[in-house]
Amino acid sequence: MKTYPTVTPLILILIQWSGGAGSLSMLVRTILIDKKPEEVPLLVESLLGKVVEEFEHRLASQYEVMKTTSTDITASNFNKPLSEPISGDKKMEEKNIKMMKKDDCSHRSITNDELKDQSLKLQMILNKQQRDIQVLKHTIDATKADMQHMQTKFHEEFNNLGMNIHGLAHAASGYHRVLEENRKLYNQVQDLKGSIRVYCRVRPFLSERSSYVSTVEHIEDGNITISTPSKYGKGCKSFTFNKVFGQSVTQAEVFSDMQPLIRSVLDGYNVCIFAYGQTGSGKTYTMVGPKDLTEKNQGVNYRALGDLFVLAEKRKDNFRYDVAVQMIEIYNEQVRDLLVIDGSNKRLEIHNSSQTGLNVPDASLMPVSSTSDVIDLMNLGQRNRAVGATALNDRSSRSHRYPLFSFSFFNNIWSRNILCSQTKTCLITCSCLTVHVQGKDLTSGTILRGCMHLVDLAGSERVNKSEVTGGRLKEAQHINKSLSALGDVIASLAQKNTHVPYRNSKLTQLLQDSLGGQAKTLMFVHISPEPDALAETISTLKFAERVATVELGAAQVNKDTADVKQLKEQIASLKAALARKEGETEESRHSISHTDCSEKYITSSDLFPFTPNHRVGDMLVARQLMGDVGNIEARANSMSRQEKQSFSLDELLTNSPPWPPVISPTQNFRDDEKESGSGEWVDKVMVNKQDNINRVGSPLGCWEAENENSPDVFYPKYLQNSSKIYQEQSSCNMFMGGNRFNIANINDIDDLDVSTSHLSEPDFLWQFDQSKLSCITNGIGIGSKTKKTPSKSTSTPERSKKAYPMSGPSPSRKLGNGVGQPLHRNGRQPFPAETKRKIGSRK
Ligand SMILES: Nc1ncnc2c1ncn2[C@@H]1O[C@H](COP(=O)(O)OP(=O)(O)OP(=O)(O)O)[C@@H](O)[C@H]1O
């Protein structure tokens, strides 16, 4: 192939000019312009050959350069951290690119060697970057693997945590369940022990004293801490109760805590709730409510009754409940009926028969069927206080009043006393609302009897005699006496003394069944938060703590099942038969007529005038009607004697005596007189009675145990006519219930003891027991009674009717039947001096 001598310089020119396409084509044209066409291919071929050769050469040299420089670069970069080379390389790359561009721009001065070097360098960089990329990929893969591992681990741990939390939540709920169970068990233990429950309530500051600093430091569950200045010691005193309610606790919250207690009344328990605390500490507020009474701020009384009615309604398919109410007050050691409608200021007596709750049997017992009935009755009670004020030296109510009445707050008793003397108001020891409930199980016929005493006490502060005079002094002294007596009773009970001085005041007599009986008892202790009440607050809380330690023994339900009823009847008739037999052998030795006794016994029906069909508004009508009913009572009784093994409430209602009982003027004897007769002895008897109750659980067991331990001579005395008595009694009192009443009266020796010793007991008990005592003391038995018994027991209904001509309203009327002797001034049949003496000798 022919080569042209101009080719090499041409190529060089070409290369130099290769930066621009336009200039290259110009150059080609310049070279080829003077050439012949046939020379052009050869020229081009030669030119291209030269170009290829030149490039091969240059590539080879560049390859050499790259080889040497790459080893240098690898060696120098070997130990550098991963990120560095990358960024370094990047920089270098960028730099190279820039350089290349620069080279490209500066163009044509670049030699082939340089190009080779550059391409080699680029290659090296490329390789290195590829290696780095591989390393990075590995790192990312490893990191990803790590991440996944961590994620799975995290999920696992998260699940574990969830499970743990779930477990903890379960444990926590279990813990709460256990706590709740513990609380219930604790309460059950408390119930079994019969501990008096104590709830403490702190009154909020009244508006005029809102800036005061509270003495209540801290309240938590059942603990209350009172801050005390140094003179009281440590600076803080803590007290523990079943529950403590702070200042902001509402009436509804307070009630909800005691609701179960109130409901147990429907289950046949006796319940007593009494409010204690210094004057103005909120006792009446808790028990009744404030003067501007609304549904929201109603106190325990209204709520309790409302609840009873609601529950009774709910249970109406299974139970039929009858509810009746009594309202009394104790003023200057006199018990007064607040539900009388004839304005009479009759004084009442307190009897302690722990089974019925009818502690004041002579007080009006008003049937109610709704809360509004109760409100009506409370209003009536209030009006009666006003009536009482005239009769009792213009006295009117003290501050614990019922809805119609209001009384402004006074911080202490002194200011109250001043007010009392200015307004001629008075200080009463306590007011008591008693709710009696009798339920009949419609399927089994079981009778449940429960009662609830709601007692609002006088302010607990002591009155200094020197600061008050006249009527106020007397009232204050009575309050002092009553509250001290309450303190003594609590102290005796707390120390489990055998003798408990219940009879030291009317208040303790009234509360006897609740403090020492089978009742469930709750004391609401109230305190004021003001610093100037601190001394009273501390002493109130100390007293309350002592009350909390009193253990009464398990509360017992007042229930007569059909089986027990039947058994009792059988036992009663067997005992009666036995008594008759024994009585026949001794009849010549007895002078006291048992027949008389029986008749008087029957007259006790006066004590239970409750007729559930009456309503407050119908009282007058009811009285009238009952007066008429009284005439047919004897006939009804005699009929029941013939057929009776069970009785119905309707029958009782028909046979109920006139209502209310007419109190003989002679019954208003002085308490002092009456109390001088027995006093302490009764307390002891009551303690023995309690012991007996504790020893023998069931009424039947109690009955038998007592009879076992008693001299045999007891039985003929009051059992010979027991079938008769039993039958007649069964119609006397729907609350008592026929069998229970009989067993209690015929066989419960201690009850009889008490009634005997307690000269204020109803005639029937008194007379009955008198015979018993004569029996004991003379060792004669009951011959004379037995003597009359056969003829009695065979008497016809007509004869029976004749035998009870005075089954009217009062003992005095009944005793006016010509059977016997003139009445004692208290309306009782007097008894032989010898018997009296013997009663005394039993003290
Ligand atoms: N929890 C309470 N919330 C609001 N006000 C209350 C509360 N407790 C008591 N009060 C108010 O305090 C004042 C005195 O209360 P209350 O008459 O009930 O005291 P008390 O202890 O019954 O007094 P007394 O011994 O004179 O009968 C009343 O004005 C009453 O409304």
From TrEMBL:
Gene3D superfamilies: Kinesin motor domain
Top-level lineage group: Eukaryota
Domain Kinesin motor per the UniProt entry, residue ranges: 195-550
Alphabetically ordered keywords of this record: ATP-binding, Coiled coil, Motor protein, Nucleotide-binding
Secretion signal, residue range per the UniProt entry: none
Biased composition, class Basic and acidic residues, residue ranges: 669-678
Residues that hold ATP according to the record: G277, Q278, T279, G280, S281, G282, K283, T284
Residue stretches in coiled coil: 112-146, 557-584
Region named Disordered: 652-678, 779-843
Entries under InterPro entries matching the protein: Kinesin-like_fam, Kinesin_motor_dom, Kinesin_motor_dom_sf, P-loop_NTPase
SUPFAM superfamilies: P-loop containing nucleoside triphosphate hydrolases
Family: Belongs to the TRAFAC class myosin-kinesin ATPase superfamily. Kinesin family.
Protein name: Kinesin-like protein KIN-14I isoform X3
Origin species: Gossypium hirsutum (Upland cotton)
Lineage of the organism: Eukaryota, Viridiplantae, Streptophyta, Embryophyta, Tracheophyta
Gene giving rise to this polypeptide: LOC107926891
